[in-house]
């Protein structure tokens, strides 16, 4: 039963992403979360604060203003104190230059009692890097900006 609820909430969270309501995602983060987007690109790096996440989402939606995320597969396992979710996605968007963009990625999530404590995104980083280089050469400087990182050391 809990896994069914977790799966439903996960799908709802991605509907919020399609509505570009990232505050709905930020509200689900545990106080001590860690989010990593793999790759040495403008979206890469690790964030551990809500401010860092908001800045990251803002950048994402500036670089892919009409991004839509298709959840193709989802798997949920584990008890409420250690729920693990894996999602396979296709992202489709129009770039700031008006060109289409499509990529695939997988997201791994860990929940503790319904709160996101950790997640990691693995995307076709070469495809994303190529887009960033193309955007940069056409005047979109943020496409090659340093990653937004704010890891808090405890």
Largest sheet: 6 strands, mixed
Task: Report the radius of gyration as a whole number of Å.
Answer: 15 Å
- Adjacency order of strands in the biggest sheet: 2-1-6-5-4-3
Order of helices and strands: HHEEHEEEEH
Average pLDDT confidence is: 94
Helix content: 25-40%
* Poorly predicted runs: none
List the helices and strands and how they pair.
Layout: H1 2-18, H2 23-26, E1 29-37, E2 45-47, H3 50-63, E3 68-77, E4 83-94, E5 100-112, E6 115-123, H4 125-137
Parallel strand pairs: 1-6
Antiparallel strand pairs: 1-2, 3-4, 4-5, 5-6
Which descriptors would you attach to this protein?
154 residues; 6-stranded mixed sheet; Nuclear Transport Factor 2, Chain: A; alpha+beta
In short:
GO terms for molecular function: isomerase activity. With 154 residues, this protein is an alpha+beta fold.
What features would you describe in this structure?
With about 150 residues, the protein is of the alpha+beta class. It has one domain: Roll (Nuclear Transport Factor 2, Chain: A). It is built from four helices and six strands. It has helices spanning about 1-20, 25, 50-65, 125-135; strands at about 30-35, 45, 70-75, 85-95, 100-110, 115-125. A six-stranded mixed sheet has the order 2-1-6-5-4-3. A hairpin with a 5-residue loop joins strand 4 and strand 5. The longest helix has 17 residues, at about 1-20.
